[in-house]
Automatic annotation (TrEMBL):
NCBIfam families (alphabetical): fum_ac_acetase
Annotated positions binding Ca(2+): D135, E208, E210, D242
Lineage, top ranks: Bacteria, Pseudomonadati, Bacteroidota, Flavobacteriia, Flavobacteriales
GO annotation (BP), single: homogentisate catabolic process
Stated name of the protein: fumarylacetoacetase
Domain Fumarylacetoacetase N-terminal, residue spans: 25-127
Keyword Protease attributed: no
């Protein structure tokens, strides 16, 4: 099945601003609420959102075997279940419909009015119903930094780390789309030099710069996914902020790993960029030494060159870019993660989400969390308004962006941007 949607020379009749994340070569998938309060599956070119449910009803996908209501849904799960061949047919067809040389929809004003929306007419939703969420811990630099700070600089990486894509099961119930504010969590911590734990708002709220991949139904219970097939079951990727409370984490994480320090919120960018769209940006990951066990050995380029950055903005203040990293720094790639996740027969479903783990580079300006950037708060970050941050303050907004660029095409993920609110205060019941 040729992937004609990636043709770098194609232009759209929808105008695309310079440096847009969404040229016609991207064609991501998302779910949005329209100006008429209808929920639909859609895509985006430039700053125009496209209602795929309406396009399908108008007959624009007649040559593709799709059920009538496949895009008239509030999640992408069923479409993702249709599999890679269908994703490709649909993306290729969308590229054709919006190609500058195709005048069918371009010249049909009535249809255009039904199908096209400006961004201020829509509200993006979570793109999938996430059944299960797993978070890996796959950046060697991040694991080394955290191990150095939390445990022992001489044994920063635990003995299993270079052999296993380490991960834990998180909560899907608290994953929210960009734009939804997050409350500072309360919890139990053990202050330095104290002998008893205390309860209260976390003092060390942090972001984690991650990406996540979304799977399709991949296997039967008991059936491992071979590493060479793993990418066939990955629909696409989003930016992922795995909000973390470092003081709660430090006290609770032994021996079973993160729990309440992580499950109060994670936020995702709303457009899923398909693995197909990312194809031109394949690259090699870091060399793996020691060589992993055979079920984790892979051939070819399994990493992707995705530039990542994080802005921190005070309430009503200007943003400061506080880090720049890249998805290609990940030691363990997505194929290894999915092969490992299922090697014991664990079943993976459509709409499952797998976080990469914090993506830190090797230099201090490329670290993927405040914990590392400020080295536990010892080296505060200077903001452009003159204030300093050790961790995230109430009222601050964390914005993550990601894009790929070669000499012909730039595609990106848009952003995931969420504000940190003070702790949740239950309403007092009046008597
Ligand atoms: Mn994480």
């Amino acid at each position: 099945m040729p992937d004609t949607a990636n043709n770098p020379n194609r232009k759209s009749w929808i105008s695309v601003p310079t440096d847009s994340d969404f040229p016609i070569q991207n064609i991501p998938f998302g779910v949005f609420l329209t100006r008429d309060d209808v929920i639909t599956i859609g895509t985006r070119i430039g700053d125009i959102a496209i209602d795929l449910g309406a396009l399908h009803q108008l007959g624009y996908f007649n040559e593709i075997p799709l059920t009538d209501d496949i895009f008239l849904q509030d999640t992408l799960n069923d479409f993702i279940s249709d599999g890679k061949k269908t994703w490709r047919l649909v993306r290729n067809r969308i590229a054709e419909i919006f190609d500058v040389k195709n005048e069918t929809l371009k010249n049909n004003e009535e249809h255009r009015k039904i199908v096209l929306f400006t961004l201020d007419e829509i509200e993006m939703q979570l793109p999938v119903q996430i059944g299960d969420y797993t978070d890996f811990y796959s950046s060697k630099e991040h694991a080394t930094n955290v191990g150095t700070m939390f445990r022992d600089p001489d044994n920063a990486l635990l003995p299993n780390w270079l052999h296993i894509p380490v991960g834990y099961h998180g909560r899907s119930s608290s994953i929210v789309p960009s734009g939804i504010p997050i409350h500072r969590p309360k919890g139990q911590t053990m202050p330095a030099d104290a002998s008893e734990p205390v309860f209260g708002p976390s003092k060390l709220v942090d972001f984690e710069l991650e990406m996540a991949f979304i799977t399709t139904d991949a296997n039967l219970l008991g059936e491992p996914i071979p590493i060479e097939e793993a990418e066939d079951y990955i629909f696409g990727m989003v930016l992922f902020n795995d909000w973390s409370a470092r003081d709660i984490q430090k006290w609770e994480y032994v021996p079973l790993g993160p729990f309440l320090a992580k499950n109060f919120a994670s936020s995702v960018s709303p457009w899923i960029v398909t693995l197909d769209a990312l194809e031109p940006f394949r690259t090699d990951g870091p060399k793996q030494d020691p060589k992993p066990l055979p079920y984790l050995n892979y051939k070819g380029k399994k990493s992707f060159d995705i530039n990542l950055e994080v802005d921190l903005s005070p309430e009503n203040g200007a943003p400061t870019t506080i880090t720049k990293s890249n998805f290609k720094y990940m030691y363990w790639n997505m194929s290894q993660q999915l092969a490992h996740h299922t090697i014991n027969g664990c079943k993976v479903n459509s709409g499952d989400m797998m976080g990469s783990g914090t993506i830190s580079g090797s230099t201090p300006d490329s670290y993927g969390s405040m914990l590392e950037l400020t080295w536990k708060g010892e080296k505060p970050i200077k903001m452009s308004d003159g204030t300093e941050r050790k961790f995230i303050n109430d009222g601050d907004t964390v914005t993550m962006r990601g894009y790929c660029k070669n000499d012909k095409v730039r595609i990106g993920f848009g952003e995931v941007s969420n504000k940190l609110l003070p702790p949740f205060n239950p309403k007092k019941v009046k008597k």
